[in-house]
Model the fold of this input.
Amino acid sequence: MNYEIVNDFPNKLIFEKDGPFISLYQPTHRHLPEKKQDPIVFKNLIQQIESSLKQKYPKKEIVSSIMKPLYKIKDDKGLWSKSLDGLAVLANPNKCIVYKLHRPVKELAVAADSPHIKPLIRIFQSADKYQLLGLSRSEFAIYEGNRYGFKEIEMDPETPRTIKEVLGEQFTDSHLTHGSYGGTAIFHGHGGKKDEIDKDTIRFFRYVDKLVLENYSKHSKLPLILVSLAEHHTIFKEVSRNPYIMEEGIKESFDSLDISQLKEKAWKIIEPIYLEKTKDLVDSFQQAKANSLGSDDLAEAGRAAFENRVKTILIEADKFIPGKIQEDTGSLELGDIKNPDYNDVLDDIAELVFKNKGEVVVLPKERMPGESGVAAIFRY
Done:
């Protein structure tokens, strides 16, 4: 069995029944000299997993079969040479997947009856997600990100991406020079020629607006940040019918900013919205708890998750409670994390809610409404 690098979450692996499941998380590094230590840390983590597995599965062939792709990862120099800020590996006897993460994660190596997905929920959750539209008169690109970074969304290769591709023979090519500055085409001539170029821009912007709305915004319902020169903001917003576009944008040429600059400027816009969302969630929990429709009791929240009664659950990001939720009764059982029969109780609860289509929000300790590590809002 080999391993696969993936970007999708949730991946089909987390819904599989065949255990045991291996969950490994570690921070990684982009640059030397720290980068040299990453494979060594990984080797130590997989040794911990192997020791845990041997407690329950004494037959060598079972352990070696599930561990095989992890040893391939350890020896893959190409993977380690292109590492980002974190690594997550999930595996069971049928499959092994790898996430290269744009944010650090705490070290964790667990063998259990279910995958540990709380760190991935935190990274992929929608509470702080946004989309970003980079736009000039000649082309566009769309990105998706959160507080930890973003990446460009890959479009169908057949999708027109430039004004020439969109307008075809209608494009006023004769009015443009071969150069451009800051994403703005340089034109020559007077009056009518400039008007034609402005009409081209409007036609192109209408196309971009419709494509983004129909193919991305309507599906994701995420806030959309426009990155473009100030004059293009005015034109685009006049023609746009996208209700998700934010009033505040980044009024600079998108191709003049590097990834770190875009990330920083985008987060300044999104952070107040994220903080307001988390405050609203905590307020909703407090109100639900007052009306006996919410609880921060670990055992009660676990049973409600087992019974599919949890509408929304807040989980503390870095809290770890060794144990499990019993599969047949939903009762809480504490245990030793070195034993593959146990995982993190908070992760088990999050997984149950997640699989039952409830909302799972992972928050830092300072934003949680209590000390138990969990706050559940019930459906009834």
Summary: The first helix runs from residue 38 to 56. The two ends are 44 Å apart (CA to CA). The mean pLDDT is 90.
